[in-house]
Specification:
Layout: E1 2-5, E2 15-17, E3 22-26, E4 41-44, E5 47-50, E6 53-54, E7 57-61, H1 65-69, H2 75-87, E8 92-96, E9 107-109, E10 112-113, H3 115-131, E11 134-136, H4 145-159, E12 176-180, H5 194-210, E13 215-217, H6 244-248, E14 256-260, H7 262-265, H8 271-293, E15 297-302, H9 313-331, E16 337-342, H10 365-394, H11 402-432, H12 434-437, H13 454-458, H14 461-464, H15 472-487
Parallel strand pairs: 2-11, 7-8, 7-16, 12-13, 14-15, 15-16
Antiparallel strand pairs: 1-11, 1-12, 2-3, 3-12, 4-5, 5-6, 9-10
Helix pairs in contact: 2-3, 4-5, 8-9, 9-10, 10-11, 11-15
Length: 501
């Protein structure tokens, strides 16, 4: 099971810890709010809300935190990563609250727990609160009554745990944003998804009987099942016994999640095909969450592995930036996608935990810059939506609110700048690429551009109403700024597959 934890009462952002039980933690700025869910992240339709206002975030995964925090002298690594995350504006962290077997097992045997390891988890939650980063903590498993009882006992032990550092029960801690039932559930014995769905219904009801404050999600990768046969063609070539639609329609499930690993799922295909898959995957789930589920969606895992033969940092940056642009565009519609959690952040000197996807922010300036830019974009957009929401509740005309007008201008410029920047990268690539200059008359196409999709950004309905779109001076300033960034080598993303710029 996972948990989302919010910490750092004097910080703007929220840290979500996901425990698997995954824990999601979040840290939010302190505001006076006297509702029955004060301090807890909730859902309202397809939106996340905090203290009655829209809540958006940018976050990360760090599954290893409890394990490392078990050794006191190693806890500095947890602190270091949380501090680095806060420095680039990350507001949600997903980590694990389970470990069975081995020398650092949380659950030594069914019902028997290692208090020393539990205190490591206490430390992770307390550090998340301190640094202002949220943490978003074979088939007989789903049907065997004894195994299911073991799971329920574990869930109860986690939820009712009283933190030995803060003295707050996990189920009463506003540092926690949400619980996750399981990381990437699969059931090869029943491809229909019915076996997993029965388990979800039973366990979701049990969790809610123990904790009505915190949000709950399944932990799904996003594979489609029999509910929508036409969507199954989007699956990456196989089924895993889950059904994105049916499983997330369970009433106790508050929001949906997907993971995005085309480099794993489509390892035999080229990078163009993988990027096209990612676009279809994200936008299909966005539409289904908005129209069918009518629940928020979180992109809970995404990244690119250095274990792939063709890997380089530019390709990783390009992929992360493409996912981020999709998240921002979806959130900019006013709801459904709350944010994304990149997989995964680590501290230096943690080679034994490396899986190829690790990001050490202090050693990855280009990636750190992309993450920081997304955090700023989501924070600005969240603030804009919050002010709009407050004006609606107070019956104010937002057109007369100068602060709101200024913020809307900043928000639109962010989206416009990202679109123009992508277009500019493509044009520069076209002018520099030897093969394109060598006499090929064909236009630059998406097979040569990693993730350039400025059309969707520039044609956003809201942007069409923004006066600066037709303001040549504003556009010239943006383009001039991008030109300077390009000349200074500030663009870390790989643009052209042909010339490998």
């Amino acid at each position: 099971m996972s948990t989302y934890i919010r910490y750092g009462h004097h910080s703007w952002s929220a840290l979500i810890v996901v425990l698997c039980m995954a824990l999601l933690c979040c840290v939010c700025e302190c505001r006076v709010y006297r509702g029955k869910a004060a301090g807890f992240v909730q859902t309202k339709g397809t939106n996340f809300v905090l203290n009655g206002s829209p809540f958006l975030f940018n976050g990360f995964n760090a599954y290893w935190m409890m394990n490392v925090a078990t050794v006191p002298k190693e806890r500095i690594k947890v602190t270091e990563v949380l501090q680095d995350a806060a420095n680039v504006g990350l507001s949600v962290c997903r980590t694990w609250a389970f470990a069975d077997g081995g020398d650092k097992a949380l659950q030594i045997s069914p019902g028997a727990y290692n208090e020393h390891v539990f205190q490591g988890l206490d430390f992770v939650v307390s550090e998340a609160r301190k640094h202002g980063v949220p943490i978003s903590s074979d088939d007989d498993f789903y049907t065997n009554p004894i195994v299911k009882e073991y799971y329920k006992n574990h869930v109860q032990r986690i939820i009712t745990r009283v933190n030995t550092i803060t003295g707050i029960a996990y189920r009463d801690d506003t540092t926690i944003m949400a619980w996750e039932l399981m990381n990437e559930p699969r059931c090869q014995a029943d491809y229909s998804g019915r076996t997993v769905n029965g388990w979800i219904q039973e366990m979701a009801s049990f969790v809610k009987s123990l904790d009505r404050h915190h949000l709950l999600e399944v932990g799904m990768e996003g594979f489609y099942g029999d509910t929508m046969p036409e969507r199954k063609q989007i699956n990456p070539g196989y089924q895993v016994g889950t059904d994105f639609i049916t499983n997330n329609l369970v009433s106790e499930i508050d929001f949906a999640t997907i993971h995005a690993y085309p480099d794993q799922w489509l390892s035999g295909q080229n990078e163009d095909s993988q990027m096209e898959f990612m676009q279809r995957w994200m936008w299909s789930h966005y539409e289904d969450s908005r129209v069918i589920l009518k629940k928020p969606l979180v992109i809970a895992e995404f990244g690119k592995s250095s274990n792939n033969q063709e890997y380089n940092i530019n390709k990783r940056d390009s992929y992360i930036d493409a996912v981020y642009r999709n998240i921002y565009m979806m959130a900019n519609t006013g709801g459904t996608v709350g944010g994304g959690l990149v997989w995964q952040l680590m501290a230096d000197g943690m080679g034994s935990f490396s899986d190829g996807y690790q990001i050490i922010l202090s050693k990855s300036p280009s990636t750190s810059s992309i993450i920081s830019e997304q955090s700023h974009s989501m924070r600005t957009l969240s603030h804009l939506l919050r002010i709009r929401s407050q004006n609606v509740r107070l019956g104010k005309d937002h057109r007369q609110n100068q602060n709101l007008k200024s913020l809307e201008k900043d928000t639109h410029c962010l989206a416009l700048t990202r679109g123009i920047r992508a277009l500019f990268e493509a044009l520069v690539c076209q002018s520099r690429c030897p093969e394109i200059q060598a006499g090929s008359e064909k236009p630059l196409d998406k097979a040569q551009i990693v993730d350039c999709n400025p059309t969707r950004i520039l044609m956003e309905p809201e942007l069409n109403t923004y006066e600066a779109k037709n303001n040549q001076k504003c556009l010239k300033e943006i383009i001039d700024k991008i030109q300077i960034q390009w000349n200074e080598g500030a663009f870390g993303s790989q643009i052209c597959r042909t010339c490998n710029l």
